[in-house]
Write a structure and sequence with these properties.
By secondary structure, the protein is α+β, with helices and mostly antiparallel strands. The protein is built from 5 helices and 4 strands; from the N terminus they run ααβββααβα.
């Protein structure tokens, strides 16, 4: 059995485990729109802020990842947490892709915890993304 056949996925369920530049939320206008008109919920140690506005074009979800400088003074600590949150999003974004009409256009993932607990891309994170649709 060759390895290409083992790793092949059906055409109906393509999982893209990338986090491309188009998915990064960088626009100051869109970030201010997300925080002014968006809805949020907390699942400690994360806060999710999302916006499914009708005026935004239907397309890929743009994601903002943030860690407060207030509790994590060292940039290396903040960068590690942001890297772990991006990895968790990247591995679980297929949940958002399964419901493209319900998926938020803008998504902010904020780390609100005060401790440096390592986040792991686990089933807990998967359930957190499912909470966006409930």
């Amino acid at each position: 059995m060759d390895s290409a056949a083992v790793n092949e996925q059906p055409a109906s369920q393509p999982n893209s485990y990338t986090f491309s530049k188009e998915e990064h939320l960088c626009s100051k206008r869109l970030i201010s729109l997300l925080f002014s008109k968006g809805s949020s919920f907390n699942l400690y140690p994360l806060r999710f802020v999302y916006l499914s506005a009708q005026e935004l074009p239907l397309g890929q979800t743009q994601v903002l990842v943030s860690v407060s400088k207030r509790y994590f003074k060292r940039a290396t600590d903040r960068n590690r947490l942001k890297r772990q949150m991006r990895e968790a999003y990247r591995l679980n974004k297929h949940v958002l892709l399964q419901h493209p009409e319900q998926a938020p256009r803008l998504l902010g993932i904020l780390y609100i915890g005060k401790e440096k607990n390592p986040l792991s891309p686990s089933k807990k994170t998967n359930f957190r993304f499912r909470a966006l649709f409930e």
